[in-house]
Specification:
single chain, 170 residues, Rossmann fold, 6-stranded mixed sheet, 6 helices, binds flavin mononucleotide
């Protein structure tokens, strides 16, 4: 199996839960993990697959990820469009609503004609605001089970990437 050159862009500001997830995905995907501030159009253009991950803050993924989309847009223009795929992941207090949290980013990716080949979400420790007084929500998450599910997700991503890029994968 040919692996796509993969970049994971992750913003994780609360308890570094999403960064933990990013590193776990990176092991399977042999990906580079960076913060959004380190991304340039030139850098993005070297990758076949870009992962976007963050915690959820006030119902949204971190806005710095949207800046990366501008770099991605410039890099896809340079490539003549297409040929890069994306995936989205998050940790949050309420991952049950992850499709809602991911939706604005997904919509922007769709506008840039970048196919999203997978999404993953799991619980992350949340001690924000009044939750601090009761010891927080999802203490000890992501846990070993969450991380194993993340590894399985990463393996499925590789299969899915081959499906959408049969020529590059051969
Ligand atoms: C300021 C703030 C706002 C948050 N808003 C939400 C929210 O709207 N929905 C939710 O499910 N979790 C929310 N959370 C919980 C975080 O998404 C969760 O703790 C996540 O794991 C943080 O990821 P990180 O440790 O990688 O930064 C919020 C946390 C903080 C600090």
């Amino acid at each position: 199996m040919t692996r796509p050159a993969t970049l994971i862009v992750c913003k994780s500001v609360h308890h570094h839960s999403t960064w933990q997830l990013a590193e776990c995905l990176a092991e399977v995907l042999a990906a580079d993990v960076v913060e959004p501030e380190a991304v340039t159009s030139e850098r993005v253009s070297r990758y076949d697959l870009i992962g976007f991950g963050s915690g959820v803050y006030y119902g949204r993924m971190h806005p710095a990820l949207l800046e990366v989309l501008r770099c991605l847009a410039r890099s896809t223009e340079g490539r003549g469009g297409g040929s890069v795929a994306a995936f989205v992941f998050s940790t949050s207090g309420l991952p049950l609503f992850s499709r809602l949290w991911h939706w604005p980013l997904r919509a922007r990716l769709a506008r840039e004609a970048v196919p999203v080949i997978g999404e993953f979400a799991c619980r992350g420790f949340d001690s924000w605001g009044p939750l601090f007084l009761v010891g927080g929500l999802n203490r000890h998450h992501p846990d070993a089970r969450d991380l194993e599910q993340a590894r399985q997700f990463a393996r499925r991503l590789l299969v899915q990437w081959e499906r959408v890029n049969p020529s590059q994968a051969a």
